[in-house]
Amino acid sequence: MTVTCDEFLASVKRLVTVPASQSLLEDSDILALATDIQRDTLTPMIMSVDEEYFIMKSVPTPIVVGQTSYRIPSRAVARKLREIKIVNEGGIVSDFPKINIERTQVYRSSSVPFGFHFLGDRVELVPSPATTGYSLLFYWPGQPGKFVKLQEAAVVTNISGDDVTLDALPATYVANTRMDFIEGVSGNWYLGLSALVTNVAGNTLTFETGTVPTDLAVGDYIALTGQSPVLQIPDEGAPLLQTLTAYDVLGTISDFEGQQRLEPKIKLQKENFLKVISPRIDGEPNIIINDRGLLRGRIRRNWAGLYRG
Amino acid sequence: MPYTFPEIRSFAGLYLQQNSFQVPDGAMEVASKVVIRSDEVISKTNGLFEYWRPDGVSPLDTLSATYTYQGVLIGFFEEGIGFFTDTFPYGGTFNSVGVLTENDASDYTVSFSVSTEFMEQNQNLYMTANEGVYKLESFSDKARRAGVPPALGLDINYLRSFYTFDGILPANSQTAYRVVFGRRDLNGNLQLSAPSDVLTIGVPAKKVGAAYTVSGGIVTVTYPDNYFVQNYVYYPGTTNYRFDGVVSNATDPALNGDRPGVTAVLGTSLSFTTGAANGTGTLDLEFTYRPNLIAQIPSEITNVADEYFVQLYRSSSSLTSTTSPAPDFALINEITLTENDILAGQVYLFDDVDPQLVGALLYTNPNTREGPLQENSRPPKTDYLTLYKNYAAFANIASVQRATLNLVNPVELIGVDLIFKSGVDEEVYRAVDSSVYIAGNVSPTRANVVNQSPLEIDLFYTHDFPLGSKVQVNFQEFDGIVPGEYTVTAVTATTVTLNTVSTTFGLCNVQVVADDTARLYNGYGASGVTFSTIAEWTEYVTKDLVRAINGNAASFMYANYRSTFADFPGTFSIESKGYIDPIYVAYTATPTNPAFIQNIPSSFSTGIQFFSENDRKPHWVYFSKVSEPEAVPIINFFPVGSENSPIVDIFALKDSLIILKTDGVYKLVGDVIDQFEVTAIDKTVKFIDGMAKPGNTINNTVIAFCNQGVVQISENSVQVISRRIEDVIQPLIGRDLSDTFLVGHESDRLFYVQTEGLNSGDAQVTWIYNVLNQSWTSTTDVFVELSLGPDNALFGVRLDSTLLKNVLWRQRKTNTRVDWCNEYLIGDLTVDTSMLTGTFTITGGNDVEPGIGDVILSQNIFNRITAVVPSGGDYILTFAQMTSIPTGSPQTVTLYKAYESKIKMAPFHAGQVSRSKHYAQMQIHLRQQVLTDLTIEFAGAYFGGSEVTSWRSLNVSTAGSSGWGFSPWGLFPWGLVDGANLVSGTEPSNIIRLYVPRFAARNTFIQPILTHTQAGQPMFIQAMGWAIHGYNERTSR
User: Fold this and answer.
1) Does A307 reside within a domain?
2) How many structural domains are present in chain A?
3) pLDDT at A254
4) Is the pLDDT of residue B225 over 60?
């Protein structure tokens, strides 16, 4: 079940009986509040269970000779990464350890980067790459999109190569804008990010070649990059988000009594939501594997580890 | 800290002067097109629509004012009077169109301003025209000048003598006559004029011992003492003068006895036939008179259909011919004027009424009746009139022009014309010198038709008519000539030949007035008759001049001969017919000696001028006789305060006449005029001269505009009522307030004060005062005049900015919710199958276009319009909800326009100005479901406005735009519809609830600004509630 932002708005208004006509909190205002709550509460809460919600894998980033600094994906939650791998020309994926800055001088002799450390908002390779043929593979927690009403997004009605036809065309959908592709079914996660629109003809958008996800289906959504007309969290989190948003709505009108009355409900909803989202799979509990145990070979944290995987 | 929930349940209208943090919670700072009609409830003002506009064809083009008389709306124009009747050209119920009917072409000489005042009495309507006080006797009748024009001169046509006991006037007596003109108006009211001059006829005493000579059967008696009154002893139908007398004591007794058919020679001798022998002797002779009189008809009486009559009054006869009669005039004859009388300008009156059979006493008789000072003068020209205790009151008056002249030397007028000049109008009167009988060419005189075709008339005097001049000929007692205006084609000394014919020869009486196209030459006798004394000559000439003036229908004045028996002859007065510039008098040449006592110059440009004067008394109030509003004795005036300070209006309350002056407010009290008394109520309240209408009455008080703002005046006190809005009233003092007027609408409890905007150049504004709950509101609907019309609706004269002419608007007063609509359109509406849109083609109605908020009324249900898109010449309308108007085919419908009402409340601080607060929510509660859309914004301590919230009842409806059923319901609370019917009491209604926008929410005070633009909705706001959270922090940096 998909929870659209419009349904979400209706639920919030119903929860605190927002006046049908008022200009203090436009729908966009309430969605902005919800987006903030998504970021400051729901996303951390969901991520806290370490069940790989929101985790995305980027397209491998080629390592360039002499370039040590590489960007973290711009849509990564908290500017953090779940994991970095290095891939060779043969597609072999190897671990790519984080090396403390204090120890970078130890890794000066290799032409292939041995590991990385963060430098500000960048991933810094150690040592500096001196050979080609390698790529970085980022695993990162993606940010759910900012909530927008359905009228600001569109539903896919047809897909033909690079052409995607929509049910309606919002005024902001013009050539040279970038779009996200969002699943139209529960989960509502991204199918593709920041695809460039090269042409708009009627309700049909033409995207840059190869950027339309192969698994895009009729009924999925297209939104301006960074936006979403649906909640991109488990459906069971929607009530919590609604209550938290209602809580903030009451705050905007100084209805502290109303907020107090919501607080027990929020507590309960948080507890229940955490119970629901974790463990993510009941039949496969996490097993701790000691990669550096005696039976699994030597630790990788030396120069030879690169070749042993 | 939890919310507090203060609320306002009492709306008090505008408070613009007081400390705005101290005013009641329900106070407002803007209240446009709203009114506190029901106590403490905000309602919209009634809507208006255009009722009539000039068609450019009718002479009635410039509408100044309206008044409802006999249930009909009368229009008063700069060009005259017409009345309006409702028509419903489109078959609608609510939308009438005024059809103007012109009353009478004669009305085009009467003009009215926006300041016209009205008074009803005796079933007539009286009004202040620019030309004086006029009246209507019926809504469809012509306008008439109030009162009857004064009777003028009265003369003897002839005196027929009779035997001793057959004449009415006995021998050796004096008898006086007066005439009064009058008419019974269409409502049966008897109107009598001021009486005429007094005509006294003396009958000689028995002549004792007159010498006679008998020769050949003819007895000749001579009277060197001018025994007979010369000139008047003419008997028509003869060429001589005849007496029927009684001879006695003759030397030859055969001469004694009744002697009919005595032939007289003017004044000096008489003769009769006898069978007596020749001889001489003396005899006694006496006779009585039956007079035939001529009364001059005022030239303002022009229409026989008006059924004017003349009443002849006669005094009792004195006991001797040297004793004046007593002024005990009694009615002896009443004659309705005929067309010929009116054409001739005079009427003949024959007295053969026995002294025992006299009728009512003349109303001006002293002692027995009202006295000579109670003459029925016409109302003066006035700016203000009202009815107080059945007395018509006229204030700030101007009388007609009056002057008195004394002719002392008539011979000096021979060859010297008299010119009377008022403004640019001149009248010239020329003395006609003749050696034969002269009667003045405007006096009826004997004439003889000497040629029939072309008509040649012998006038028997030397006339002065040039060839080609226009001659108005009115004939008396002669049927051979059609009266009319003819051209003089030939002249002799005493005859004129005119371009007309006569069917017969013979003697006739004629009246001739000539016009040489440059000036009127109105001849009058100057000499030609041998008078025994200069006094006789003077009287003769003066009376002839008076007749000449009065016989000149085009003259701007009347004249009256004023000398009586006790006076020197030659005194006459002139009085303007209307309210004109002073009448100057001059000779055309300098006479050898002065002809008048007064210094008459021979030029209007040099020398000391002689001119008339009129009473211009801005501080006088005149009163009519009780229940006789058109009879205003000249002494019935009351000076009020200083003459330096004019009266600016008067108003009658139950027991007081309130008099507004520039030096204070006065009242006149008393039930009868003898008890009238003027006292000052307040001399610190000074009213402003020149306002269109500085005040009006309501609730037995006067509300007026003065130097202290708007005041309410009771019979005993003055109270400033504009204190609450003084900030927008007092700055107007000293400004041009000539367009300011005040009107009361008694049944609505509302009083309208239309005046200038706060700043010079601002649009005018109308302040509305509820006299029962003392609330002020306002409207931007402004007019040049406003009055109450039929159906208790206000009618407003408004300047159309496109037409640049005044049009007439009508307040909606149908007692349905249509009353809260403005203009209307008629058109064909084709509703599409969605039942939510339709194509509207205008076919009639006012000059407007459809707009959002307008409604189409169908089956008594309002179909609200939420969108309008022009499409060619048509309009695509979108409705707020599915319409029940049939789809597919065009339906003739009526569209009603919405108008904007706006409210800005006074600062609401919940009791603590200095405490910052969070105004979280506001609710508005209605009396009934009579409000579907409201635009709300807020002002506060930091911003003059805020985000706008558009509240719509459809947003809170669970039925969407469709509702249920053929007449959709579910859009309103259960059982209610958006219909035209009025309901009473409290009904379920949507609560208008909203969050206060962020720019306004955190404030020390807040001012909601409500704007309503939906047709057919009275609003009925009864409560305004808040959810407020108080802060503790500072209120500002």
Assistant:
1) no
2) 3
3) 87
4) no
Q: Are residues A224 and A197 in the same domain?
A: yes
pLDDT exceeds 80 at position B908: yes
Q: Answer for the pair B180, B411: CB distance below 8 angstroms, yes or no.
A: no
Interface of chain A toward chain B, CB-CB under 8 angstroms? 18-25, 252-257
Q: Which residues of B touch A19 (CB under 8 A)?
A: 921, 993-995
User: Does the pLDDT at position A164 exceed 90?
Assistant: yes
Tokens describing residue B667: 């009242």
Query: Cis before residue B454, ω within 30 degrees of 0?
Result: yes
Nearest to B995 among A24, A256, A257 (CB): A24
For the residues B877-903, what does the mean pLDDT come to? Answer: 93
Give the best residue of A14, A16, A23 to mutate against chain B (max B CB count within 10 A): A23
Q: Tell whether A183 is covered by a domain.
A: yes
Instruction: State which of A120, A142, A164 marks the end of a domain.
Output: A142
What does pTM read for this prediction? Answer: 0.84
Rounded to the nearest angstrom, the minimum Cα separation between B1013 and chain A is: 17
Q: Which residues constitute the domain of residue A196?
A: 150-228
Mutate to test the interface with A, among B995, B1029, B1031 (most CBs of A within 10 A): B995
- CATH number of the CATH domain containing A170: 2.40.30.20
**A256: chain B residues, CB-CB within 8 Å:** 1-2, 1029
Structure tokens at B755: 């005046």
B949 → closest Cβ in A21, A253, A256 = A21
Q: For residues B170-195, b (16+ Cβ closer than 10 Å) or e, as one string? A: bbbbbbbbbbbbbbebeeebebbbbb
The answer to whether B920 contacts A22, with C-beta atoms less than 8 Å apart, is no
- Taking CB atoms and an 8 Å limit, are A256 and B1 in contact across chains? yes
The answer to whether residues A200 and A238 belong to one domain is no
* For range B217-229, the mean pLDDT: 66
Same domain for A239 and A166? no
E strand or H helix at A252: helix A238-252
The CA R_g of chain A, rounded to the nearest whole Å, is: 23
Contact B393, B386 (CB under 8 A): yes
Establish if A303 belongs to a structural domain: no
Claim to verify: residue A105 and residue A126 sit in the same structural domain: yes
Same domain? A160 vs A135: no
ipTM of this complex prediction, to 2 decimal places? 0.81
Candidate from A23, A254, A257 with C-beta closest to B997: A23
Residue B952: its chain A contacts at CB < 8 A?
A: 20-21
Q: How far is B981 from chain A (nearest CA, A)?
A: 27
Select from A103, A120, A142 the last residue of a domain.
A142
* Closest to B477 in 3D by CA, of B193, B881, B157: B157
Mean pLDDT confidence for A44-67: 94
Chosen from B916, B994, B996 to mutate, greatest number of chain A CBs within 10 A: B994
Q: Tell me, what's the pLDDT at B237?
A: 40
Kindly report, residue by residue over B343-400, the tens digit of the pLDDT.
778 888 988 888 888 899 999 999 889 998 999 999 999 999 999 999 999 999 999 9
> Does A181 share its domain with A137?
no
Distance of residue A253 Cα from the nearest chain B Cα, in angstroms: 5
Residue A295 lies in a domain: no
* Per-residue pLDDT at B537 exceeds 50: yes
Detail the DSSP E strand segments found in A32-82.
55-57, 61-62, 69-71
Judgement on whether residues A126 and A204 belong to the same structural domain of the protein: no
One domain for residues A77 and A136: yes
**How large a percentage of chain B has pLDDT more than 70?**
86
Minimal C-alpha gap between A150 and chain B (Å)? 19
How far is residue B673's CA from residue B677's CA, in Å, rounded to a whole number?
9
Instruction: Name which of A125-134, B153-162, B218-227 the model is least confident about.
Output: B218-227
Q: How far, in Å, CA of B805 to CA of B798, rounded?
A: 8
Question: What pLDDT digit, counting tens, does each position of B958-1013 carry?
Answer: 555 555 444 445 555 555 668 888 888 998 888 999 999 988 898 999 999 999 99
Phi first, then psi: give them for residue B43, nearest 5 degrees.
-125, 160
Least confident of A36-40, A162-166, B210-214: B210-214
As a whole number of angstroms, the distance between CA A29 and CA A249 comes to: 9
